[in-house]
Amino acid sequence: MDIVRNDSDDLLSELLRPLRLTGVFDSRWRVRAPWAIEGDAERSVAVLHYVVEGVCWISGTDQPAQRLLAGDLAVFPTGAAHRLSDHPERQGVPLRAVLPERQPGTSGEIDIDGEGPESRLLCAGLHYDSSAATDLYRALPWVLVLDRSQVDREPLLRDTLRLLASPDRPTGPGDRLITLRAFEMALVLALRPLLRDFTENPAVLPVLRHPGISRAMVTIATRFAEPWTIESLAREVGMSRSAFTAAFRELVGEAPARHLTGRRMQEAARLLCETTLPQSAVPQRVGYQSAVGFHLAFRKWFGKTPGEYRSHAATLA
């Protein structure tokens, strides 16, 4: 039986594919009412809150408060500032006051005693490579929420969260890397059903409802090494150059040429960091016929030469 995939499904896959975490700080919270904690905006960090037990409210600047129950999961894809509390109107203390050190690769605990009901949460700051975050990713809503029934429909997500939330989760050699990859998987598993729902709500991500621009983004994501021009991309999706450029800017938030460059740079960075491919072979693999042109584009994009980028990545490994 043939499986038919539409452009929206492919686009969601390509939106998720670049999400590679570079580090995680996670913490377990045991809090008894009254309590409230304010988290600052985080740059290049997705934030995850999983309610293990009890209830909590999440609220943000000019955003309505939302109530989370046990088994619910909230993801802040771009690390928007927000408050967690036992009551939506309660003023909180800054997170940095209760967890002053939150370095990637470490863990922490918050324990707040009170006279009210107890809640337990798993919270994490998921650091990602900002160069891999497209404008489409950055356009995601400030918070995405999966209720318990939605989490339960993703057994791998549910079981991963429960394991990560357990105070007795296994430790040993490679624990830091295992934790990083487990949270990375949890993030992708959480975003997948939410992003799929967006195809039915074009007001959230209108690009998913535009067949030409959706197809163009999939083409850029998967065939970036081909010698595209704006004209040839427009022809590929059956649009005029002017209509294509205008629609792409409006829906994606950047020009198609910059989006193509970003995808090529993302793949170049991956090849430099994750493979032993000779540096001289990278330009052609990502669509550049000129090594000089690639070098200049890479340095402009990352602020480092390809060689400096690879050396820096090796020191962090």
UniProtKB/TrEMBL annotation:
UniProt-listed InterPro entries: AraC_lig (IPR032783), AraC_XylS_family_regulators (IPR050204), Homeodomain-like_sf (IPR009057), HTH_AraC (IPR018060)
SMART domains referenced in this protein's UniProt entry, alphabetically: HTH_ARAC
UniProt keyword list: DNA-binding, Transcription, Transcription regulation
Keyword DNA-binding assigned: yes
TM region positions: none
A Pfam family recorded for this sequence: Cupin_6
The HTH araC/xylS-type domain, residue ranges: 214-312
PROSITE patterns registered for this protein in UniProt: HTH_ARAC_FAMILY_2 (PS01124)
UniProt keyword Ribosomal protein present: no
Taxonomic superkingdom: Bacteria
PANTHER family: ARAC FAMILY TRANSCRIPTIONAL REGULATOR, HTH-TYPE TRANSCRIPTIONAL ACTIVATOR RHAS-RELATED
Protein name, entry field: AraC family transcriptional regulator
Organism: Streptomyces tamarix
